[in-house]
Amino acid sequence: METTEYIDTLRREGKLLADAAERAGEHAPVPTCPGWTTGDLVRHTSTFHRWAARIVAGSLPGPVPEDPAPGVPTGTDLWPWFRDGHAALLRTLEAAGPAADCWTFLPGAPPPLTFWARRQAHETAVHRVDAESARGGELTPLDAAFAADGIDELLTGFHARTRSRVRTERPRTLRVRPTDTDTDTDTGTGPVWTVRLSADAPPRAERSADGPADCELSGPAQTLYLLLWNRLPLDAAAVTGDRSLADLWRRTSGIG
User: Fold this and answer.
1) Burial class (CB in 10 A: 0-12, 13-18, 19+), 28
2) 212-233, pLDDT tens digit by residue?
3) Sheet holding 172-178, edge to edge
4) Which class for 162: exposed (0-12), middle (13-18), buried (19 or more C-beta within 10 A)?
5) Separation between Cα atoms, residue 194 and residue 102, nearest integer Å
6) pLDDT in tens, 22-58
7) How far is CA 230 from CA 65, 194, 249, in A?
């Protein structure tokens, strides 16, 4: 995806999040984030919006602490505060040029501007789903290509870090296969990930369907995206092979 597409998605998802959260009310429980209220969700997301904007605008080297924003409001002041932070992040990303240079924190990250537009688009999309779960009713659909991109960021970025807790006693292989993404003209298939798990190293994910897999998760890209981020149950997707491997992912894959 292009940087401009990430920024456009961030704009859309932030508006949807704010609208859903305001409709639910500050004290509504968030079913997909047990123990959180909608107010907690909004404060968390806006803190990360402001954090990212500060890094990009200041061309900051890292690591940069994820300090909570000062003066976080409550009550009716919470919604304009969120919208102001969201708008400031959009302005910052749109003003930054492709040569922008600042800290990024995932292995194999794209150039900084693309990294932050992508990261904040996915951060906001997942938390928009949380806000809509608190509001109740149907979830707003995600574009399949964007959802597949989020799967890629999670598997090849977040879980490539040593802090990933997904480990197996002996080498195992998990495959993730979206069923509704466009076919790649080079490979003749849509994006598929093979994740190799072991006891002593973080998961190693590659864009490939080569070789056998102990367990495969398949379904629409949006379903897999939300399942892998622990927003949907395993039964939302098709699970073939050793289900215990999918259960292990659920128990150990939470991102702190």
Assistant:
1) buried
2) 999 999 999 999 999 999 999 9
3) 204-207, 193-197, 172-178, 215-219, 238-241
4) exposed
5) 31
6) 999 999 999 999 999 999 999 999 999 999 999 999 9
7) 25, 19, 9
